[in-house]
Design brief:
Bound molecules: zinc ion
Helix content: 10-25%
Largest sheet: 6 strands, antiparallel
Radius of gyration: 28 Å
Number of strands: 30
Distance between the termini: 74 Å
Number of helices: 5
Strand order of the largest sheet: 11-14-13-12-10-15
Length: 495
């Protein structure tokens, strides 16, 4: 007799030469995946919310599960997901699982985050008003303390700090406008005066292999805003504390991307440089060359051969210590993102593109390191792959829980739309939306950049689908098709 013929739940125990049938009791087992201890910490901390989700899996899947005495459905694969009140007194979820024969119990206790009193935090004190300089890195200013992102000044930009509120400095833009920066992004230039005679006399454009450079002397490291617009296609530079004495703009008659430059001084100390383009921007950046500000406008890649010669940077989100989301049966987002990325890489390679991955290993990477790695490969596009999760307190049963696509720069919206359309068809999941969102991976100006959230890993049915190689193949195919239709549209626009 082979064991495969044995009735379910029975095995034979061999004692000497005797075979004695015993009933196997499937021992009930509960695996709570979330709430879980924080990364790099062994405490389980959830946000201070009235209700929260709890998920994981149980065996056997036909067992009856209750959490804090509320019955919770169990899926065929044993997964469960519940959204339940958070008991304020005990801060504990008690789970009870029972079959007709046996039962199991477990409990999950959690903490609420500790409030750090503001007056115990210390910040470097600046001697305001004072001149400051932006440090190397990915600097950002905000419209107000903790407000929306405003400017992204590169290393070496200087400004006048007017006042300090805890770890934020108020930076002068004009006599009527200011912006706020965290002290960690800047250093104080003790005794250095902030130049007040910033004047622009000329602008020089020069076309090189792969890009056009627009040089603006006399800016003297002033604060600026650099952004792109559509319809008409434009990269606009706003200079603060700068006065126009412009009477010379040198253009190239056959520049591949630049159409014309128009300047405008709408108010004192605000100078607009409108760089009008012949087609939509394919990325741009700024750098200081002594007192001149240099704007680089990327030329589009060769669009005549479909995906050929197109370098696509793939960012499998998370990795190493950053687990990202997790599913009820412990499928981790960092691994899942990598699987989809591998599939996308292979399909792009077969389609003739030059795919490059930001990571292949299970390594911890800073968000900006990912962008730097993509940039080092001269990427034409960046696709960041993720699977979504909800923040504590959000009821997954009242949400869309579908496929979402994210962009930040106007020059990325077309790529995002093409990819989102294809991805929705491939996943068959609800439309979570096409989002403008201030995410680090879609914030770079160097190339069109898009982040996809293929679905929600905490939803048991979706986690089960993500485990399927054929589902992941379909998603990768959709990303390839999205890129292809984007390139086709761009080619049509430029011809
Ligand atoms: Zn993620």
């Amino acid at each position: 007799m082979t064991t495969s013929l044995l009735p379910r739940f029975w095995i034979y125990t061999c004692i000497g030469s005797l075979l004695i049938p015993n009933l196997i009791i499937a021992v009930p087992r509960i695996d709570v995946v979330y709430p879980r201890p924080r990364e790099g910490d062994n405490r389980t901390v959830i946000a201070k919310v009235d209700s929260n989700f709890i998920f994981g899996s149980v065996q056997p899947s036909h067992a009856r599960l209750t959490i804090n005495n509320t019955p919770v459905p169990v899926y065929l694969n044993g997964a469960f997901l519940a959204f339940l009140p958070v008991p304020d007194s005990s801060q504990t979820y008690h789970l009870h699982l029972e079959t007709d024969q046996e039962s199991a119990d477990t409990s999950v206790s959690f903490l609420f985050p500790e409030q750090v009193p503001a007056d115990t935090q210390s910040f470097p004190q600046f001697n305001c008003p004072t001149t400051i300089r932006f440090l190397p890195g990915n600097n950002v200013t905000r419209l107000s303390v903790e407000g929306a992102y405003d400017l992204f000044p590169i290393e070496g930009t200087t400004a006048l700090a007017l006042s300090q509120q805890q770890n934020f400095l108020q930076i002068k833009l004009t006599p009527f406008r200011s912006t706020w920066v965290e002290t960690r992004f800047v250093e104080e230039l003790h005794g250095a005066a902030n130049p007040n005679n910033r004047m622009v006399h000329k602008i020089v454009c020069q076309s090189e292999s792969g890009f056009t450079r627009v040089t603006i002397p006399g800016v003297k490291r002033a604060m600026y805003r650099l952004e792109d617009f559509l319809d008409p296609n434009e990269v606009r530079l706003t200079l603060f504390g700068v006065t126009s004495h412009l009477d010379l703009i040198k253009l190239n008659h056959d520049d591949p991307v630049l159409n014309r430059i128009v300047w405008q001084q709408p108010e004192d100390e605000v100078l607009y440089i409108h760089i009008y383009l012949k087609q939509r921007s394919w990325g741009y950046s700024a750098q200081w060359n002594n007192d001149a500000l240099e704007i680089t406008l990327n030329h589009p890649p060769d669009l005549d051969h479909d995906l050929e010669a197109i370098t696509v940077a793939i960012d499998p989100g998370h990795g190493g210590d950053q687990f990202g989301a997790i599913g009820p049966t412990r499928l981790s987002e960092k691994e899942l993102n990598l699987w989809v990325a591998q599939e996308l890489y292979n399909q792009l390679l077969r389609a003739g593109a030059r795919p490059v991955a930001v990571r292949w290993q299970d390594e911890t990477l800073d968000l900006y390191e990912r962008i730097d790695r993509a940039r080092q490969t001269d990427a034409d596009l960046l696709i960041s792959i993720h699977h979504n999760a909800f923040a504590d307190g959000v009821n997954p049963f009242s949400q869309t829980c579908g496929t979402g696509t994210y962009y930040y720069r106007p020059h990325s919206v077309d790529l995002a739309r093409h990819i989102h359309t294809q991805l929705l068809k491939a996943t068959g999941l609800p439309d979570d939306g096409l989002y403008y969102d201030n995410l680090a991976l879609v914030r770079p100006t160097y190339f069109p950049a898009v982040l996809v959230e293929i679905g929600y890993l905490m939803i048991p049915e979706q986690e089960e689908r993500f485990r399927s190689p054929s589902f992941r193949k379909r998603c990768a195919k959709a990303l390839v098709n999205g890129i292809k239709s984007f390139l086709k549209a761009r080619k049509k626009e430029s011809s």
